[in-house]
Structure formats: C-alpha cells, structure tokens
Amino acid sequence: MLKKWIFVMCFVLSCSSAYSGVKEHRALAEELIKLTEGDSVMEKMKAQVTMIFQQITAQMNIQEADKPKLEKYTARFDAILKEDMAWDKVKEQYLDLYTKVFTEEDIKGLVKFYKSDLGVKVTAKMPELMQESMVVARSYMQNIVPKLETLTEEMQKEFAPAPAPEAAPTPEQEPKKK
User: Fold this and answer.
1) CB count, 10 Å around CB of 3?
2) Residue 118 and residue 120: Cα distance in Å, rounded?
C-alpha cells in the first residue's frame, strides 16, 4: 500500500512540475510577444482592414442623402472589428505558436535580447524595415508578374483539350424526310 501511495505522489508531483514548466514557458512567450509588440498585431490589421473599407466606400460614390445609411454600415463594420479582431481572441493561439516554435531556452534568450538596447532598437525599426521591404518586393514583382502571366497563358493553350471533332448525326438526329 505504501508503494502505491509513493507512486501516486511521485506521479502527481511530476505532473505538477510539468504543468509549472508549461506555465513558465507560456509566461515567457507572453513577455516576448509584449517586448516585440506582437500584441499590437490585431490593431495593425484593424487599421489595414479599415483603410480597405474606406477605399471601398469611397469608390461607391455615395450620395450625400445616403450618408446616414453609410454611417449605419460603418457602425456595424466597427462593431465587427471590435468584437472579432481583438487581441484577446487570438492571444492563446499566439502563445501556442510561440511555445511550439521556440523552446523555453530560446524564449529566454530572445527576451534577454529584446530587453537589450539593440533589441529595443530592432523592435522600433522593424515596422519601417518591413514597410520598405514590401516596397522593394512589389517593385521586383512588377517585372516578374508579366513573365509569369505569359508563361501560364502558354501553358493553358498547350494543355487545353483539343476540340472534339464533329460527329456524324445519328439516325435519331437526322431530320425526317416527308
């Protein structure tokens, strides 16, 4: 009986320490996300979606008389963003992602780096770097896209099924002579 009790206690303690390790790993991941301003990702996405919505409504050439209707839709749009694009909605998924990709030791090292002066600078400069990287990538792709379009058009022509030859009419299809 004593052996069973010791076994159960060892099992409970090992589960407890494993859970404690998971909590620590997740707490470190949350700290890393905050240091890198990853928790603002949803706010940035909201701003982009809002800009797209504004562009769409501007293209609709809504008359002055219809502005109250637009305000109603804008309020619904804002409510959707507030409800569905909140950091709290995705926080656990981000923590899962970070703890899956990085070991606890990795995250400790990253936290240490992002707390350093250089890490703070990287966090501050990353949005600018990403923005300018996108400009470079877009201009580069402008030269590639026409080549890819030509390639896919050629492929479509080559792989398109050949038109079926016209079949001779069957006796049921032939017009009856009177």
Assistant:
1) 7
2) 5
User: What pLDDT, on a 0 to 100 scale, did the predictor assign at position 4?
Assistant: 63
Q: Dihedral (C-alpha) 29, 33, 36, 41: value to the nearest 10 degrees?
A: 150
Residue 137: both structure tokens together: 């990538």
| Opening angle at CA 149, ends 147 and 153, nearest 5 | 120
Q: Which of 38-42, 46-50, 52-56, 139-143 bottoms out in mean pLDDT, i.e. has the lowest?
A: 38-42
Q: What is the pTM of this model?
A: 0.61
Query: What are the boundaries of each domain within the chain?
Result: 23-115, 117-154
pLDDT digits (tens, 9 = 90+) for 70-81: 999 999 999 998
Identity at 84, one-letter amino acid code: D
Q: What residues contact 89, with CB distance under 8 A and at least 6 apart?
A: 42
Eight-state DSSP code of residue 61: T
What pLDDT is stored for residue 62 in this prediction? 86
Cα–Cα distance measured from residue 12 to residue 168, given in angstroms and rounded to the nearest whole number: 82
Are the C-beta atoms of 114 and 123 separated by less than 8 Å? yes
Is-contact 99 26, C-beta < 8 A?
yes
pLDDT at 61: 86
Handedness of CA 46, 47, 48, 51 (dihedral sign): positive
